[in-house]
Amino acid sequence: MARPILFALDHTVEIVAHRGYSAVAPENTVAALTRALDEGATAVEFDLHTAGDGTPILLHDETLDRTTSGTGHVTAHRMEELSELDAGSWFDPSFAGERLPTLTSALAAIAPRVRTIFAELKGVRHLEDVQTIVSETRNAGLIDRTVFISMDWALLDEVRRHEPTALLGPIVEYPDRVDAAFDRVADDPRSLLDFDARILLADPGLTARAHDEDVPLAVWTVDEIHDAARLLELGVRRITTNQVGRLLSWARSLVND
Questions:
Q1: Percent of the chain, pLDDT > 70?
Q2: CATH number of the domain to which 115 belongs
């Protein structure tokens, strides 16, 4: 069975903006996502949790303390409370007043320009919340442009249950998960594997295995050009980075050479 068109890159390398352009704007905010697109990125990655009322929001941590003016576990707060928090001042005073975006608002902001979305499911109140995430992505008209990724592979099973055509990306964060990850995506043309880049750099043979088994790869988080160049040499063409501008300039140079 053929791979989805989203997996068939029409250019040398796809630079994926990690939590948006998180080197220049507060991570997982609309500002970070739109700055990545302004820079020329065609792919973005963001993290998802659900609030206490089940609303999907962009947030990396389980708690609010690091990246907002709030405190405590995200599920202890309803979206009405979360919408009042400042999610930008921690990064720089110029972003004071930046809000925690809901999934719906984030998708609306990027829909006209984004080619690929890597939506990482970090945590939910209940498995039923996954249906809301899938439904909001579908309603935004972006289900075919979204790869749902997660370290919790059970959440990906739930995505697929609610959307049989969903594109999935099990995250491989430890070497001891490699074999299980390859087994998981075997004969599934709507899946890729999303590796911690350090695993592939330490064991380049895994990229040959992926090629032999026809498994597309993505990697995170690569901020140095020499690492990106080595990964591309190994056949990895989806590279997630905080340093969007730096990696895009490198990718453009490959086309011009």
A1: 99
A2: 3.20.20.190
